[in-house]
Amino acid sequence: MFCFFSKTLLHGRYTVTASPTQKLCLIQKLPFSLLSPKPFSTNANQHSTVVSYLINTCGLSPKSALLVSKRVHFEAPEKPNLVLGVFKNHGFSQTQISKIIEKAPTILVCKPDKTLLPKFEFFHSLGISGSDLTTLISTSPALLKVSLESKLVSNFNALEELLNSKDKAIAAIKRAPIIFYNNVEGTIAALRGHGVPDANIAMLIQRWARFTMSSPDEFNQTIEIVKKMGISPLGIQFVIAIVAVKLNEKALWERKVNLYKSWGLSEEQIIAAFAKFPWCMIASEGKISAMMNFFVNKMGWEASVLAERPRLLSFSLEKRILPRASIIQFLLSKGLLEQKVTRVAQMFACTENVFMKKCLTSLKDEPQMLKLYADKFNLL
């Protein structure tokens, strides 16, 4: 009889409890060849034996087996055989099993009835089975090493409550398994405590879960840093600012600030630009330099124009700014576009459809220019 775990739904929350029935019943059904002791080297070079097992039985390359053997140790193959058998019985391919062992070697010597089977059953209860399960685990095998109750069940319940949907919570987990490693409940509570709307919290956890992986104290410090910059917790920019602060280590943050300063911006202008559009500090140093160089040196703008319109820094220089610049420069030269920076900036920032409509009106007597631009992007 398959090892059974009772699943109950209490006020929308899942609990998983082990039944007192035989937990190893599935293991007992494994092929005899996997359970039977096999001749195993007992010489002094145990490390060499582990390497051989990893290569011949687990399918690892010699190079990978040598690295993995430093992180897992066993004297006989019985326990690893049990683990491999459980994976095979749940539909994992040899390639997927190899990936799991490479990423999380200690799973090879775990107790399947305590480490693997309860978690497989939990995922089954969510409707994650078959290829969905094997893909999820082989991509993120560390899921098998975290606590079932305090991590998997607790985080799923918190996510389901936040999204108000079991299906949305499952979809989020499939997209970003790293969510299971976090303290989702603590993250939600901290953000709600500062007035962040649930919709924005959901976006942060679903899109940028890794940036919420820190101690409660550290995460709260990040929130306070963002608040001190004058960004309202009610707006979407607040959670993006959290990502920006977490993404940039102190040294990198300071380098980017100094880079903006080198173009003549003050610290106050930089903070104001960040509060308006946090992506300006998510951009790489190379991107910042290239964009500032173009607008200041090629377009002749003051750096303060970019501080007031930091969104311009987020566009692709090659795919958007430069192609449009050729049209804009032509319009300026013909007096078909006002010289005001605000007007020109709008031409760079507007959508492709709006840009084309404006160009169609302005270039009705210069169709060759519009055709050159449109052909490049297959717009006509």
The number of helical elements comes to 23
Q: Describe the main β-sheet briefly.
A: 2 strands, antiparallel
Helical fraction equals 55-70%
Strand order of the largest sheet: 1-2
Shape: elongated
Rg value? 28 Å
What would the average pLDDT be, to the nearest integer? 86
Task: Write down how many β-strands occur, each being a DSSP E stretch of 2 or more residues.
Answer: 2
Quickly give the structural class: mainly alpha
Task: Estimate what percentage of residues fall within beta strands.
Answer: under 5%
Spans of at least 5 consecutive residues with low confidence: 1-12, 19-44
**N-to-C order of helices and strands:** EEHHHHHHHHHHHHHHHHHHHHHHH
Quote the distance from N terminus to C terminus: 65 Å
Main attributes of the structure:
380 residues; mainly alpha; two-stranded antiparallel ribbon; 2 strands
Describe the structure.
With 380 residues, the protein is mostly helical. The chain is 61% helix and 3% strand. It has 23 helices and 2 strands. Strands 1-2 form a two-stranded antiparallel ribbon. The model is unreliable at 1-12 and 19-44 (pLDDT under 50).
Question: What does this entry show, briefly?
Answer:
The chain is mainly alpha-helical. Helix content is 61%, strand content 3%. Helix 3 (46-56) packs across helix 4, helix 10 crosses helix 11 and helix 12 (184-193) runs parallel beside helix 14.
What is this structure's SSE topology?
Layout: E1 5-10, E2 13-18, H1 25-28, H2 32-35, H3 46-56, H4 62-68, H5 78-89, H6 94-103, H7 112-115, H8 117-125, H9 130-139, H10 148-163, H11 166-175, H12 184-193, H13 198-207, H14 216-228, H15 236-247, H16 250-262, H17 267-276, H18 285-298, H19 303-308, H20 317-333, H21 341-349, H22 352-362, H23 367-376
Antiparallel strand pairs: 1-2
Helix pairs in contact: 3-4, 6-9, 10-11, 12-14, 13-15, 14-15, 16-18
